[in-house]
């Protein structure tokens, strides 16, 4: 089975009565079976996203080969997406390796430059049937080593979103509406009204970053107001590391390391299943 781009995978999700796709960050190769187990349990298509740091660590081709193989053997329609990338050469590497979706992140640039670069990425991606996500506005928190401090957060203006989508024709747009990357120190204050207005102005699938720690109620409301891709990353990492700490602490050095990892992977499956159920 070949990989699906985001638009095609969203169609599959809708046929299966999901309103949005969760897009889950894979932090290491060992976690991969847990992702497919969650998709099988929920009869959901699967969107796996990879930070540029993880892609460099594991290798783009290895990720494509492993994920294509599991997608075919488990019969799970799957999209492999490069998360937050500002480096056009790395995006080209991902496309050449066989990623089916990429994100160009020019959110730190003036809007004209962000638009121009996003258009370049779209020109690179279209001939290969690869979907493109872009970002407008500055989402707070920490993601793959990039930190946006509280005072640097910039919510996405509705009119800028309209212009951005019109001038780029991007497949999906990540917007800043109050979520942050990483762990929250308090409750997330999501700007649902701004979201509804951006949905109205763009008519394009919108992406909610920083899904970790967002309440079920906010998540459902965001999906109702136009979010069609929800990114979740930190939550799987936290669960995996917490379980590993326990099992490695209790285990003996000559126990199979596999036995230490199974409970961690089970916890990751539980996170994905819980999130996926919210999108029905
Ligand atoms: P969290 O790590 O906060 O869930 O955010 C993930 C994300 O938005 C990746 O792009």
From TrEMBL:
GO biological process, one term: carbohydrate metabolic process
Essential cofactor(s): Zn(2+)
Active-site residues, as the UniProt record annotates them: 83
Gene Ontology terms for molecular function: tagatose-bisphosphate aldolase activity; zinc ion binding
Residue numbers binding Zn(2+) 1: 84, 181, 209
Record-given protein name: Class II fructose-bisphosphate aldolase
Keywords: Metal-binding, Zinc
Binding site for Zn(2+) 2: 105, 135
InterPro entries for the chain: Aldolase_TIM, Class_II_FBP_aldolase, FBA_II
PROSITE patterns: ALDOLASE_CLASS_II_2
GO cellular component labels: cytosol
Binding residues for dihydroxyacetone phosphate: 182, 210-212, 231-234
Co-factor: note: Binds 2 Zn(2+) ions per subunit. One is catalytic and the other provides a structural contribution.
């Amino acid at each position: 089975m070949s990989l699906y781009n985001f638009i095609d995978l969203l169609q599959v999700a809708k046929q299966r009565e999901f309103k949005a796709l969760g897009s889950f960050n894979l932090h290491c190769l060992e976690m991969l079976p847990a992702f497919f187990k969650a998709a099988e349990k929920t009869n959901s298509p699967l969107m796996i996203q990879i930070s540029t740091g993880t892609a460099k660590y594991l290798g783009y081709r290895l990720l494509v080969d492993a994920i294509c193989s599991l997608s075919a053997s488990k019969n799970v329609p799957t999209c492999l997406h490069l998360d937050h990338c500002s480096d056009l050469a790395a995006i080209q590497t991902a496309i050449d390796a066989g990623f089916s979706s990429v994100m160009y992140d020019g959110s730190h640039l003036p809007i004209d430059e962000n638009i121009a670069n996003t258009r370049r990425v779209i020109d690179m991606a279209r001939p290969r049937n690869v979907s493109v996500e872009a970002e407008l506005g500055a989402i707070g928190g920490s993601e793959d080593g990039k930190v946006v401090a509280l005072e640097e957060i910039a919510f996405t203006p509705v009119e800028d979103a309209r212009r951005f989508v019109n001038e780029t024709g991007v497949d999906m747009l990540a917007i800043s509406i109050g979520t942050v990357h990483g762990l929250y120190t308090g409750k997330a204050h999501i700007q649902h009204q701004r979201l509804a207005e951006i949905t109205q102005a763009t008519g394009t699938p919108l992406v909610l970053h920083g899904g970790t720690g967002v309440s079920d109620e906010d998540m459902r409301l965001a999906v109702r107001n136009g979010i069609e891709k929800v990114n979740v990353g930190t939550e799987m990492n936290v669960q995996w590391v917490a379980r590993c700490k326990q099992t490695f602490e209790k285990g003996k050095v000559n126990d199979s390391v596999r036995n230490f990892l199974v409970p961690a992977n089970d916890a990751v499956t539980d996170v994905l299943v819980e999130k996926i159920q919210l999108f029905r």
